[in-house]
Amino acid sequence: MEIHSPVHGINIKKMKKNIFLAALFLIAFSERVFFDLGPNVELVTTAVILSSFYIGRKQSFWLIFLVMLFSDLVIGNTNIFIFTWTGFLIPALFVKYFSNSKNSIFKKSLTGTFAGTLTNGFFFIWTNFGVWMLTSMYPKTELGLITSYINAIPFLRPQIVSTLIFVPLGILLTELILFLLHKYKPESKFKYQLSLNKSNQF
What we know:
By secondary structure, the protein is mostly helical.
């Protein structure tokens, strides 16, 4: 059931979702642009999982698209960008199928982390295929493709480690926030505040 303010018709539930998506955008964008946590340590995968699990795959897709677009406008990219972008965007369309709102926090953390590591695996296979296909780093042979994957293994490890840390942490923090919002019901106070503001206008 969606909650609207009796004063201005504000959709409280939609506002919460938009704030959540904006927070995920700022976190993932800032890590790519301002506070890089290390080579291939990233928070885009975490943003994929959280937005898919708690909002929806359509919103997750556009969130990740905007994160990659605006961060690459700042830090730059090469012709490989089509593979790095789709390396996150394609999983964003399917991660939702791993989520179940009735699951316990522990099970959500497990399934979210599993979906995150699958996202990392797809990203690894897809982007290194792109490196082999679009660049001159490796010969266009089966051996060249295999070599590109072998040489990229050291970059896969920190990405998976970041997923193992940040995805369950993100789910725990999100569940805590949802618990606090449900317990203290800020929308009721918000509606009351708006009602007071309206009455004070007369």
